[in-house]
Amino acid sequence: MAQAFHDRDGLIWMDGKIVPWREANVHILTHGLHYASAVFEGERCYSGQIFKSRLHSERLIRSAELIDMKMPLTVADLETAKAEILSANKLTDAYLRPVAWRGSEQMGISAQATLTHVAIACWEWPSYFAPEVREKGISLQTAKWRAPMTETAPTASKASCLYCTHTMSKHAAEAAGFTDALMLDYRGFVAEATGANIFMVKNGVLKTPTPDCFLNGLTRQTVIELAHELKIPFEETRIMPDELKQADEIFLTGTAAEVTAVGKIDDTTFTVGDVTRRLRSTYEDLVRSKNNIS
Length: 294
Fold this sequence. Notes:
Layout: E1 11-14, E2 17-20, H1 31-35, E3 38-40, E4 43-46, E5 49-50, H2 53-66, H3 75-88, E6 94-102, E7 116-123, H4 131-136, E8 138-147, H5 164-175, E9 180-185, E10 190-193, E11 197-202, E12 205-209, H6 218-229, E13 234-237, H7 241-244, E14 249-254, E15 258-265, E16 268-269, H8 274-287
Parallel strand pairs: 8-9, 8-15, 12-13
Antiparallel strand pairs: 1-2, 1-7, 3-6, 4-5, 4-6, 6-7, 9-10, 11-12, 11-14, 14-15, 15-16
Helix pairs in contact: 2-3
């Protein structure tokens, strides 16, 4: 079993202080724990540089604003804090998890008197999937849960409250022998995986769902930019599940997943194709280049 995250060596930046990993705790009556009033980011540092760091910081603040939570830090403050905690842990290749939450100053639905707390953890984390899995492609099971309408949830926010259905969907997929779950939206269109955006390739054209009710990932945006640079025909459009299963190639994108091929959706299998390989290779070169800053 992997080492539990509460019991590790290391340091965590928490409300302006760097504290020992095991002492970075919150009270049981923390509002964020009871009412999911929290937002977070997932970031990767390559060779000492956090990829799209400033964009991640901007999104964290924007996510907090979307759930009516005041952030006590500016983008510049977050950038400084991330650099401090990487240095304190002596890490140059790492995963970072900034998180902001409402504290225990008030308990109940109303959170007017709570303070917003911020912490940043970082640790070594290689590829989300093993190399052999990335090469063969992961498997997805279509989930029963769907991405909600924008009028029912803050879908543009990277908010904790939105991930409950993703966790349930991933558990169901894993129990059935799949790697992850394919999430549809409330209309039945293809949306995303549980923690990554999805792309398909058909007849040489790269397509991805329009992010009108799910997160427009930063890695997703980067891959679209790379596709334009590589002159790969591209469309952002609504995609039905049957169309997805007719694709020549499928892959996921995300900070953790990076660019990961999909080898199976339900009973349909796919091969890792040229477009996926080109974009994966170009992305890997970009994040490790000296020009990978946002």
